[in-house]
Structures are given as structure tokens and as C-alpha cells.
Amino acid sequence: MNLKSKFKPTDAELEILRVLWKEGGSTVRLINEILNAKREVGYTTTLKFLQIMEQKGMVKVDRSSRTHLYTALIREDETQKHLLDELLESAFGGSAKKLVMQALGNNKTSQKELEDIKNLIKQLEGGKQ
Amino acid sequence: MNLKSKFKPTDAELEILRVLWKEGGSTVRLINEILNAKREVGYTTTLKFLQIMEQKGMVKVDRSSRTHLYTALIREDETQKHLLDELLESAFGGSAKKLVMQALGNNKTSQKELEDIKNLIKQLEGGKQ
DNA sequence: GTTTAATTACGAAGATTTTCGTAGCAAAAT
DNA sequence: ATTTTGCTACGAAAATCTTCGTAATTAAAC
Prior knowledge:
The structure is a homodimer.
Chain A: H1 3-6, H2 11-23, H3 28-38, H4 43-55, E1 59-62, E2 69-72, H5 76-92, H6 96-105, H7 111-128
Antiparallel strand pairs in A: 1-2
The first copy, chain A, binds a DNA duplex through helix 2 and helix 4.
């Protein structure tokens, strides 16, 4: 499977990855139950996705027990970065400023979080001088 | 066509929307030529997309002349917001902070742009107290 | 006025993504 | 041991997205 797609999960794949990132190694049953809290998904649908994701190198499987254990092979922050970069290019023409302002704009980002962001910016500015 | 999809352009649709947002009302030929600067796309492919986008309510067509004129019906900032919100939920679990820090993190956002963002934050903090 | 060129309409093939049904095993329960 | 339950494998249908070929029509050029 090609490298590109490894970091470009589809919507359904991303849903599953989020479970794996949160829960760590999980069985199909657990993953499927968590997904079903949000929306109805058949068990074999979830299983099929996991098998596809293994092909793509997104997850690895431990088959030592009959009940297989799936674990994410791509990192959450790395995947976020890829998806964000893509959106940055495709929708914001590469302007991180526009994107950030849009993200903060209507949003209820907390005082403390804004503080954290300010600190990051200070750091970035420091590095530039 | 349902409302949801109106603000959720596919990749190919977004490419076209970006042209329309930049150029304003445009002919199929112009749009196709601009697209072809980036990658090869057949003329009828572009035309077909525009026709689909009309169905979805993303663009409107002026058919008064034989050479039709297409114009975007959805706004750039609104569309950006929708796509961003979606990514925020699907990949960042709703944390705008994480998203923003990721966006600024590796990026070469300019001094002035960082300044602008700081000002926005100041404004946001002001409103909260 | 005929030929040539440009434009739109439309169907459909190909590709990708999402979804599940069924079969075949393995384990657990009786 | 036989039945029942639970799990994986696999193929394939359904849905969506991308791409183009062909036909029909209109305008322009000659």
C-alpha cells in the first residue's frame, strides 16, 4: 500500500483510529461498541475496516489469541498534522493565519488555552529574532 | 440536494470553488485552463463538476449567453469554517487549542501574522472578562 | 450556405469508500 | 459429543466521487 494513504485516513478510518489512540490495543468488539455509542455500525463493517487499515499499514494486529488485538501504527499528532496541512493547502491556500483565526474566531476556546497559545507564539517569535 | 453537502465540497469541487472565489464569475474554459496549470483535467470533466455543483446549490449559472458563466453561491469563509469545524471534531476531538498549536507549530508563519493572531487573542480575552 | 470549431448535455465507466451477508472455524456451554 | 455462540475471512453490493467519450447544438469562419 502506498505511503501517502497511510497518513490520510478516510472518515471511517479516522473514527477507528481515534478509538485506538484513546484506548490503546483493542479488540474488534470493543472498538465496535464504542463506535456504536455514536452511530450504528455493523460488527463486520468495523472488522473489515480494521483489515483494510492493516493492509495500509495504519494498524498492526496481534493474532496470538483467537480474539485479535489491534493497535495504531500511526501517531495521533502526525496524522493530525497531515490532515491539517492538507486542509491548509486545499481550503486556505496555505495561510496558517487565516486558518488559526477562523479556528479561534467563533470558538469557545478557554482563557487558559488562549494563554497557552500566546506562549507558543512568544516562543516562536523568540526563535525568529 | 441536501443542505449538508452544500458546504462540504469534495476535493475536486473545492479546487473549482477556489478558482471561482478568486476570479469571480467564470466560463468553463477559463476555470479548466486555470486548473490545468496545476494538473491535467479534461474540459468535460470540469464542466461535469460545475453541473453537479449547480445541482448541489454551490454555484449558479448564467445561461443568457451560449457560453455559460458560473459563480460561487457559497462563501469562502463560510466553507472554510465548515471544513475546519469538521476536521476539528473528527481529528482533534474538538480542541481548537491543539489544532491551532499544530497549525502554528511547524509552520513558517510570519512575524506580522503572529502579531495579528496575538491581537485577535487579546480581543477574545477582552470580551471574556 | 457549408465546413469547422466551440460549447453543453448526458450517460456511463473507473476508482474509492462504506457497508454488510455468508461461510467457515474455534471455543464455550450444555 | 452436540449445540450454541463468537470470531475472522472474504466477496460483493451500495454509495459516492472522479473522469471522460460521444452526441447534439450553436456560433464562427470561410
